[in-house]
């Protein structure tokens, strides 16, 4: 058992991260099953879903989803090629066009609604609603913490001082 509370909480967060990877994998698998009948993929659904309420530039979609602009750009271009989305002029920025679904894209996402709703109800019925609300609140706090930490160097290998986020300098190999 660990006696350093900082390490204990770090261990707990590590467990949360690992379980989140598992949860994300499960969500992706379910999304692939849900999207297949309407001719989408989970990634396409994710990008289209980000702009259902209002058009955004690709960089804005990437920020919202925590993805790279390049990966979202690749998906956005595919969706445009397939007639599921379109680019519009952006009055706020000459080069960063706005991205939005076409009627066909909206129809494809709408085609998911019934199956997605049934799946969500089935899964959520297995968890207490208050626990889901708490989970969402904690996720939002973790996202805010990650956003605040963005751009900072991550800690290096063990041996650094507690709280020292800088990776230790690499030493030169000893010469014999």
Description of the molecule:
This protein has a domain at 25-146: Winged helix-like DNA-binding domain superfamily/Winged helix DNA-binding domain (Arc Repressor Mutant, subunit A). It contains 6 helices and 3 strands, in the order H-H-E-H-H-E-E-H-H. It has helices spanning 5-35, 42-50, 58-65, 69-81, 103-124, 129-149, and strands spanning 56-57, 85-90, 93-101. A 3-stranded antiparallel beta sheet has the order 1-3-2. Strand 2 (85-90) and strand 3 form a beta hairpin.
Oligomer: single chain
Distance between the termini: 41 Å
| Alpha-carbon Rg, integer | 21 Å
Detail the poorly predicted runs.
159-176
> What's the CATH architecture of the domain at 25-146?
Orthogonal Bundle
Helix/strand order, N-terminal first: HHEHHEEHH
Percent of residues in beta strands: 5-15%
Please state how the strands of the largest beta sheet are arranged side by side.
1-3-2
Count of DSSP helices? 6
CATH topology of the domain at 25-146: Arc Repressor Mutant, subunit A
Class by alpha and beta content: mainly alpha
Highest-level CATH class of the domain at 25-146:
Mainly Alpha
InterPro entries: HTH_MarR-typ, MarR/SlyA-like, WH-like_DNA-bd_sf, WH_DNA-bd_sf
Organism: Saccharothrix australiensis
Domain HTH marR-type: 10-144
GO molecular function: DNA binding; DNA-binding transcription factor activity
């Amino acid at each position: 058992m660990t006696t350093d509370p900082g390490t204990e909480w770090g261990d707990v967060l590590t467990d949360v991260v690992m379980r989140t990877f598992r949860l994300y994998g499960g969500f992706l698998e379910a999304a692939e099953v849900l999207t297949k009948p309407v001719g989408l993929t989970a990634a396409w659904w994710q990008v289209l879903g980000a702009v259902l309420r209002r058009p955004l530039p690709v960089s804005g979609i990437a920020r919202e989803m925590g993805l790279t602009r390049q990966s979202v750009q690749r998906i956005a271009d595919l969706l445009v090629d397939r007639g599921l989305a379109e680019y519009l002029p952006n009055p706020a920025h000459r080069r960063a066009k706005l991205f939005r679904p076409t009627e066909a894209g909206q129809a494809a996402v709408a085609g998911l609604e019934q199956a997605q709703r049934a799946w969500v109800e089935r899964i959520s019925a297995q968890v207490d609603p208050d626990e889901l609300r708490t989970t969402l609140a904690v996720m939002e706090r973790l996202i805010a913490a990650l956003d605040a930490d963005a751009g900072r160097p991550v800690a290096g290998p063990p041996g650094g001082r507690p709280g020292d986020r800088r990776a230790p300098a690499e030493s030169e190999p000893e010469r014999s």
